[in-house]
Amino acid sequence: MTLKVALSACIVTLSLVSSVAAHHPGGPGNTGGAGPIVTIPATTLEQGHFAVAAWYEFSRLGGLDDAQLIQAASKHIHAHSIGTIQSASSALAYGVTDDWTLALRLPYVLRTNIREGHHEHVHGGGVLNTVDARGDSRGFGDAVLLAQGRFLNNVMTGTQAAFLIGVKAPTGVTSRHDAEGLLFEAEFQPGSGSWDGLFGLAMTQRFGAWSLDGNVLYQLTTTGTQDTNLGSRFLYNAAVSYRVVGATNDAHGAFAHAGHEHTRSAKHDHKKGIVHTHVQSPSWAVDLVLELNGERHEMQKIAGVQDINSGGTTVLIAPGVRVSYGSVSGFLSVGIPVVNQVNGLQSKTDYRVISGLAASF
């Protein structure tokens, strides 16, 4: 299995543990040198190799206007609006064996322009409905540790399959306050305060310059800070990738020559007594990617009571590009919603942009 292709699967599968629909950042599932960007492929790192990645996600949400928030407040509905969700994440992955990879992800999360309807009974029996500008919430989010085990690797057909299992630990900040000094609710905190389990499967089919990838991932969420369960999530992704620049290899699947681009020497005896040394230099590769990224999010519960203005289903169509040179790659993905069905009154995703860099060694 090639190194740059292999660094893909586990290293940022981690970022999928966050949810745009739940007002948490999402992110790429693959920061390797080939193939999809958000979808998780089944490839793993080679034994003894490391991969590192850094990426940035920007999600613009269609915020609720003042009239909507005031109307909701007048009906005693706890509604809020968010301007953007941004996150900067880093990840480290290690190939324990050729078929087992462990990865750790650490995010920094920013939510901007949080606004909320406010219902107040004033002196004399009157009622006042206003909008509170609560400001931004930022800080380190929850760490994720993920293991990927590949159980199928047919090099002749280019078919691979792997299972995913992991945990999200409550390492993030849960004590951020708003512009008025009030504690933000759990859904606005950078961290959740909960231990969550991760369970999933990934599939890959490569042929020539093409790669087809798909995955499912379930996050079993538990109760965390402020006695809040943010809601379990089911994520599903599919991608088609095509290499427009760079070598491919049908016998070992698409992008087989994307890895092992560290400079190396090879000696050939063309004539007795004469030895020539050839140095293989790193080469360029470009992949075009088209993905569908979906998520079903359950309603959150606060002290056991469901919040009807939470959860829903979001599906994005996301064209992207990946450019690689040797063991380093950069990627860009732009996601536009094709399904945006949220429960109750919530801000909806307008678009999502993901960019980043990855390297293997």
Features:
single chain, 361 residues, mainly beta, Porin, 12-stranded antiparallel β-barrel, 3-stranded antiparallel sheet, 19 strands, 5% helix
Describe this protein's structure:
By secondary structure, the protein is mainly beta. It has a single domain, classed as Porin (Beta Barrel), CATH 2.40.160.40. Helix content is about 5%, strand content about 55%. The strands form three sheets. The protein has a twelve-stranded antiparallel barrel. The protein is elongated.
Q: Give the CA-CA distance, first to last residue.
A: 14 Å
Mean of the pLDDT scores?
Answer: 84
Total domains: 1
Q: Total strand count, please? A: 19
CATH architecture tag:
Beta Barrel
What name does CATH use for the topology? Porin
CATH class: Mainly Beta
Outline the low-pLDDT stretches: 1-22, 250-268
Order of helices and strands: HHEHEEEEEEEEEEEEEEEEEE
- What does the overall shape look like? elongated
* CATH homologous superfamily designation: monomeric porin ompg
Largest beta-sheet characterization? 12 strands, antiparallel, barrel
